[in-house]
Structure to design on (107 residues):
């Protein structure tokens, strides 16, 4: 059922937060936090926070950079759709989509 499914994401978040507490430079944990929060209701700000933290800490050739840019673009687009995001969100959608396409030109 959905309650059990949502609780699993809470467990993922708890584990990733513990990993960050042990090693703040562990960039994969920030990606995990972004994905887990992306699967929860009303967590756009958390998703964006962890996307930015991942992009700051991950090496420039990190495998999940493209996915992270697309997740950030989608989250900003969702904020626009729900009325929470404005011009800045639109600019961020364009920025992150452009970065993703720059890193993965076949997309």
């Amino acid at each position: 059922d959905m309650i059990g499914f949502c609780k699993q994401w809470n467990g993922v978040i708890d584990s990733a937060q513990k990993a960050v507490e042990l090693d703040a430079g562990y960039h994969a944990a920030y990606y995990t936090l972004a994905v887990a929060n992306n699967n929860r209701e009303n967590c756009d700000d958390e998703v964006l926070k962890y996307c930015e933290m991942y992009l700051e800490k991950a090496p420039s050739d990190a495998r999940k950079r493209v996915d992270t840019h697309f997740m950030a673009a989608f989250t900003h687009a969702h904020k626009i759709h729900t009325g929470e995001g404005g011009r800045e969100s639109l600019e961020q959608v364009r920025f992150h989509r452009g970065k993703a396409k720059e890193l993965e030109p076949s997309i």
User: Anything to note?
Assistant: The chain has five helices and no strands. The longest helix spans residues 2-22. The two ends are 35 Å apart (CA to CA).
